[in-house]
Amino acid sequence: MSSKLLRNAALAGVAAAGAAVWAIAPRTFNDKRRNFVPSIPEVWYAHRGLHDAGSGLVNPSEVEDYSGDNPISAKEDAANASIAENAQYVALARRMAMKAGYGSPDVAGPIAPENSLAAFAAACEAGYGIELDLQLTLDGQVVVVHDADLKRVAGDPRRIEDLTYDELTRIPLFPGSKPGDLKAKPLPGADANPPLVVTPSTAPDGYYQHVPLFSDVLKVVAGRAPLIVEYKFSDNSAWDARTEELMEKGHALLESYNGPYVIESFHPGAVNWYREHHPEVCRGQLSWPAKLAADGPVEWAAGLLAFDWMSRPDFVAYDWTGGASPQVRLARAMGAMPVSWTVRSSDELAQCDQYFDRHIFEAFVPDAQ
Fold first, then answer.
1. Which terminus of the chain faces fewer neighbouring Cβ atoms within 10 Å, N or C?
2. Which three-class secondary structure string do you get for 27-92?
3. Residue 332 lies in a domain
4. Domain-embedded: residue 10
């Protein structure tokens, strides 16, 4: 190879490295100081509240039975330990929810399903921070729910954007489920095409939780726990009137709230909205280690934090499996706080703890380890 080719290759490498640094760079220190930006409080953050049904929980009946004559491998041992930790977590969620005034020991089903008022009250009672998700209903109400539809959490395949908040109050989360269930059983007619599920005309009998208003969640938390508030969208590359509406309404509620919070989103445009309109708010870019072949070039680039030039985040909330990746380590070196999501066992914590400064968790009790 000639000296000219070597020189050009070296220059190209320097340019590529410079572009990567520019793209990933977080908000500057001077910007933070000028806008009096707070840091993320140093607590554990309960994913969607401290819950006894929903995201990340382990269903022992779906895990291979490792008993037998053969020695238990390290992987099998970790799985069994995770089941035990999961049971401890579910029991804590139920105790804390009842301590907060939700449910009672005679409630056979879930007391504090994910993203419910009871789950958030339980997290407050246990002394944890909270991570939660915002979406808009058909009638423009800001509610706290993760998925675009209710199939996993209520057995109802209809989308949040097609239901009013009044309808949501009559749809129980995890109906007929057991404490610790990962997902709800489909309602009658849910698997038909089109679905035959309709909203009940009256509220169901007995104790239940439903998708709550964000305003009601803030009243329950009342400043007792720091919040990580995620703005949730079905398409993280689109921006329309409803996207703008969620941003404006969500922030209006936070602006009148007297308690610590930070915001985050997978949508770089949503984080950039805070950069442009409310630079005083601590903001975070959510991401994960996407694969080019499986997830496409846009998701792959987002996983490399290539869109951080839009959001200039204060922190990077990254899938716990990607803490050692070059992009997360570079972002950390340049001043972005790395936050893991979502750690679900002490074994996972041991693998990723050195790479993150804050953790979002579920399915185990981290400070009991």
1. N
2. CCHHHHHHCCCCCCCCCCEEECCCCCECCCCCCHHHCCCCCCCCCCCHHHHHHHHHHHHHHHHHHH
3. yes
4. no
